[in-house]
C-alpha cells in the first residue's frame, strides 16, 4: 500500500517499556488485549488475565520512554510503516467524522512502540500480550517484532497484513470515541453470559473499520494487498488459533471466516455498514 511519509508534527508517537521492537456509523468501543494477543503467544484469556493480575501485584510502574519521535518512526522498516499508517488513519477518519457532521468528536489516538513490561492507564502490560489499544489513555501499543510472527502465521510478508493490524487497533479507538466501547462494557456487565459473544462483535467491527480505512484509500492499494489482508484475518481467527482446543462459546475475536468477511464488508468504504456487523457470519 502506497502510504505518504509520516509527519511527526501530525502524530503522537512514543515508546513504552524497553523501547522499540527489533523490527519494529459514527453516531454509534473493550477488551484491552485486542486483535491478536490472546492465542498467538499460547495464552488463553483466563491465563492472560492471571498474568496481568500478577504483574499488577508485583511490578512497579514504569514511565514511558521519551525517545525522539523521528528516531522512533525511522528505527526500522516496521516502525516507519506503522507511523505512515497512523498518519493515514488520522487523516481518513478525521475526514469521515467531518463529512458526517461529527468533526468535533474526533480525537487522534497516540501510538506507543512497546517492549518488555510497561505501564498503561489500563494497567500493567507486556509486549507478549500482542498489539492492543488502551481506551483509558487512547493509545495503540505495538511491539513491532510481532509482525515477524504474523508473517509466519499468515504465510506472507506483505505490508498490508501489518497495516491491517494497526487499522484494527485504530478501529477500537473509533469505538471508544463514539461510545460503542462503553456501551458494550455495560452490556457485558449486565449480562455476563453474553460477554464473549459481545467481545466477538466488538472485534469484528474493528476488523470492519480496518477495511473501511483501506476502502476509502483504494487509490493507494497495490496488487495483492487485499489478499494479504484476508490471509492475515483468516490466520488470526479463534478457530484456527486454538485448533479446536477452545469451544466456540468461548471465542473472543471471531472465526477465520467471520474476520475475513468483516474486513471484506469494510472494504466497501462505508463505515455505516459496520453498524450491521451482527449480520456477519
TrEMBL record:
The chain crosses the membrane at residues 20-41. The keyword Transmembrane helix applies. It is a single-pass membrane protein. Keywords: Membrane, Transmembrane, Transmembrane helix. It is found in: Membrane. It holds the Pfam family Zn_peptidase. Its main location: membrane. PANTHER family: INNER MEMBRANE PROTEIN (PTHR30168:SF0), PUTATIVE MEMBRANE PROTEIN YPFJ (PTHR30168). This is Neutral zinc metallopeptidase. The lineage of its organism: Bacteria, Pseudomonadati, Pseudomonadota, Alphaproteobacteria, Sphingomonadales.
Amino acid at each position: 500500500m502506497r502510504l505518504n511519509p509520516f509527519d511527526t508534527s501530525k502524530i503522537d508517537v512514543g515508546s513504552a517499556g524497553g523501547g522499540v521492537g527489533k523490527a519494529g456509523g459514527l453516531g454509534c468501543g473493550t477488551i484491552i488485549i485486542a486483535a491478536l494477543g490472546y492465542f498467538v503467544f499460547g495464552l488463553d484469556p483466563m491465563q492472560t488475565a492471571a498474568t496481568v493480575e500478577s504483574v499488577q501485584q508485583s511490578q512497579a510502574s514504569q514511565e514511558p520512554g521519551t525517545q525522539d519521535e523521528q528516531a522512533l518512526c525511522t528505527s526500522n522498516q516496521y516502525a516507519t510503516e506503522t507511523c505512515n499508517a497512523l498518519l493515514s488513519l488520522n487523516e481518513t477518519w478525521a475526514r469521515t467524522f467531518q463529512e458526517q457532521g461529527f468533526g468535533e468528536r474526533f480525537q487522534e489516538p497516540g501510538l506507543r512502540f512497546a517492549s518488555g513490561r510497561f505501564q498503561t492507564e489500563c494497567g500493567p502490560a507486556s509486549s507478549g500480550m500482542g498489539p492492543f489499544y488502551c481506551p483509558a489513555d487512547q493509545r495503540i501499543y505495538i511491539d513491532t517484532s510481532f509482525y515477524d510472527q504474523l508473517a509466519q502465521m499468515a504465510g506472507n510478508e506483505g505490508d498490508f497484513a501489518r497495516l491491517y493490524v494497526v487499522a484494527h487497533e485504530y478501529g477500537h479507538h473509533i469505538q471508544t470515541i463514539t461510545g460503542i466501547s462503553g456501551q458494550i462494557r455495560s452490556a457485558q456487565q449486565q449480562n455476563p453470559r453474553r460477554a464473549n459473544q459481545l467481545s466477538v462483535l466488538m472485534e469484528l467491527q474493528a476488523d470492519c473499520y480496518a477495511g473501511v480505512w483501506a476502502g476509502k484509500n483504494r487509490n493507494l492499494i497495490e496488487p495483492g494487498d487485499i489478499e494479504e489482508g484476508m490471509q492475515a484475518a483468516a490466520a488470526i481467527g479463534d478457530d484456527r488459533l486454538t485448533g479446536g482446543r477452545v469451544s466456540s462459546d468461548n471465542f473472543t475475536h471471531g472465526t477465520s471466516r467471520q474476520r475475513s468477511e468483516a474486513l471484506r464488508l469494510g472494504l466497501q468504504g462505508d463505515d455505516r455498514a459496520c453498524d450491521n456487523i451482527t449480520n456477519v457470519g
